[in-house]
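Example for tutorial group B:
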């Protein structure tokens, strides 16, 4: 057997004769530590033939992966990786069928045969020192392994998407150097408005975490210099960090004139949509789960520790409450798909309805009325849309797979398929994707999904949509009053805590009862389970086609 030891910055080759050598192999290889604790040494064992039970070697220090697709000279490749603290390896390598990435071998020793996607052959590996980007070199879950582990140690999440803030910062640095050279502080949109109102350069903790430059380790909370150095962000560009419930300044004289407010009005940190919408929906205790459907959408569950599933681009993010995290998976286009189907498929059918003289002239009221009408239409179509399925990936997708090339499609259209089936299929497709992300969360033992689930955002305004979601998830769905405004309610809650009007954000749950509750129908379960299985298969079956058309 040939053993290739991949170190942080070099490759070493060892020749052995028997598996017994594996017990001592780690003694032969230095395991350099990165920044005080992360082991980055790896052993790759290349074997011509592998039996199913051969790896019952009794080494608790190792986790075993089966990897297909190495050079043709070998039939199989097996990766032995030292065990990491906090079950890091399990978190970063566990994947879903549709993703085609690596999976840990079952504890009883049987191998999973999923493929770990490697960009380079063994003899051509690039290291972290050679390439700055996280996507280069020996990769796990699409990220260069040493940087991946470093991210997970300090931040609990990984900035491996081009949509993440870091890479926007780096783009300006690379493409607009004249602007970049003038940078004083790097602010999010919310923090820019705070600065305009108060003159203070600050960033709330949730916004700081969203940069993935925030150290989440207990006792080390704040900007993380090792990560900043790794990705090339000047830490002097990062502002002071404040709590979401904290008063950060006062309205200046100039801003008071512009805003029509009294000078000296208190300015609070507040939070982003992902931080505050769950709060405003009354999901503030560990185990509380909410689903949001606005322009984008997500599934969020409150947890008391950091959880990460890098293979699915899901992680426990820092929110408004410093005591908890929000385990979060995002859909890029959620109710945006409903807007699309309204504009492109429904408006001609609704034309007569639009002429109703009782309709308000306001855009919001018009959209609500149109949405209500569409709800009436799709309620006449049976569950499952007569076999028609829609994929809600109109702007690529983020979780549980990231693919900017993914796109929306209608599947299984027949001669008898009408427009109303297509409209209902769009709503069902959004709900199928929410189920996919929810099930991905549910596999984590650290995560407890609540029942009922709070549903919020504009998508929660329709009773038919709420019932469809309940039926597809087979869980109770609760909706609060004015679900489209829960973000503003969450912001008000932060101010209330900051002013001492309520003791903490967890208290908010007692103040926001459900207005409506929807219970799942057992009659629709079989058809929805059937369609959901096909829905999940559609990405795997069309990933290559998306790349050809959109790559």
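The residue assignment follows.
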């Amino acid at each position: 057997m040939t053993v290739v030891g991949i170190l942080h910055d070099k490759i070493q080759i060892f020749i052995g004769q028997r598996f017994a050598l594996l017990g001592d192999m780690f003694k032969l290889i230095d395991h350099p530590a990165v920044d005080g604790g992360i082991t980055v040494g790896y052993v790759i064992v290349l074997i011509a033939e592998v039996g199913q039970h051969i790896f019952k070697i009794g080494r608790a220090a190792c986790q075993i992966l089966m990897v297909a697709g190495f050079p043709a000279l070998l039939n199989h490749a097996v990766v032995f990786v030292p065990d990491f603290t906090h079950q890091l390896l399990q978190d970063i390598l566990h994947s879903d069928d549709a993703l085609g990435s690596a999976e840990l071998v079952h504890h009883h020793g049987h191998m999973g045969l999923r493929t770990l996607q490697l960009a380079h052959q063994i003899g051509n590996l690039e290291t972290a020192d050679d390439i700055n980007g996280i996507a280069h070199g020996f990769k796990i879950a699409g990220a260069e392994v040493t940087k991946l582990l470093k991210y997970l140690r300090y931040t609990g999440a990984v900035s491996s998407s081009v949509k993440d803030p870091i890479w926007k910062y780096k783009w300006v640095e690379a493409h607009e150097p004249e602007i970049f050279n003038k940078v004083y502080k790097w602010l999010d949109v919310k923090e820019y408005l705070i600065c305009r109102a108060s003159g203070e350069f600050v960033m709330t903790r949730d916004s700081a975490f969203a940069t993935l430059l925030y150290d989440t380790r207990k006792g080390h909370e704040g900007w993380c210099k090792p990560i900043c150095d790794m990705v090339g962000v000047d830490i002097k560009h990062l502002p002071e960090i404040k709590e979401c419930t904290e008063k950060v300044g006062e309205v200046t004289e100039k801003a008071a004139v512009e805003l029509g407010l009294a000078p000296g009005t208190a300015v609070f940190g507040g939070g982003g949509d992902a931080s505050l919408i769950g709060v405003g929906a009354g999901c503030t205790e560990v185990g509380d789960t909410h689903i949001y459907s606005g322009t984008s959408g997500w599934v969020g569950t409150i947890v008391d520790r950091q959880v990460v599933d890098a293979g699915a681009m899901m992680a426990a993010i820092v929110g408004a409450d410093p005591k908890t995290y929000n385990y979060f998976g995002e859909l890029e286009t959620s109710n945006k798909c409903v807007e699309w189907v309204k504009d492109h498929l429904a408006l001609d059918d609704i034309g007569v309805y639009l002429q109703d003289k009782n309709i308000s002239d306001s855009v919001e009221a018009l959209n609500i009325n149109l949405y209500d009408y569409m709800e009436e239409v799709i309620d006449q179509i049976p569950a499952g849309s007569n076999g028609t399925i829609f994929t809600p990936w109109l702007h690529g997708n983020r979780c549980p797979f990231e693919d900017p090339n993914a796109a929306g499609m209608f599947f299984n259209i027949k001669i008898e398929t009408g427009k109303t089936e297509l409209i209902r299929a769009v709503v069902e497709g959004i709900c199928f994707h929410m189920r996919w992300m929810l099930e991905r969360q549910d596999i984590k033992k650290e995560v407890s999904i609540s029942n009922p689930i709070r549903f919020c955002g504009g998508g929660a305004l329709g009773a038919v949509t709420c019932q469809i979601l309940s039926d597809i998830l087979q869980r109770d769905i609760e909706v609060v009053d004015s679900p489209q405004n829960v973000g503003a309610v969450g912001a008000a809650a932060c101010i209330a805590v900051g002013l001492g009007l309520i003791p903490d954000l967890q208290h908010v749950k007692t103040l926001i009862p459900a207005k409506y509750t929807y219970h799942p129908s057992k009659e629709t379960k079989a058809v929805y389970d059937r369609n959901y299985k096909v829905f999940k298969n559609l990405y795997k079956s069309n990933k290559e086609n998306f790349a050809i058309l959109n790559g």
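Residues 525-550 form the longest helix (26 residues). Compare this with the pattern of hydrophobic and polar residues in the output above.
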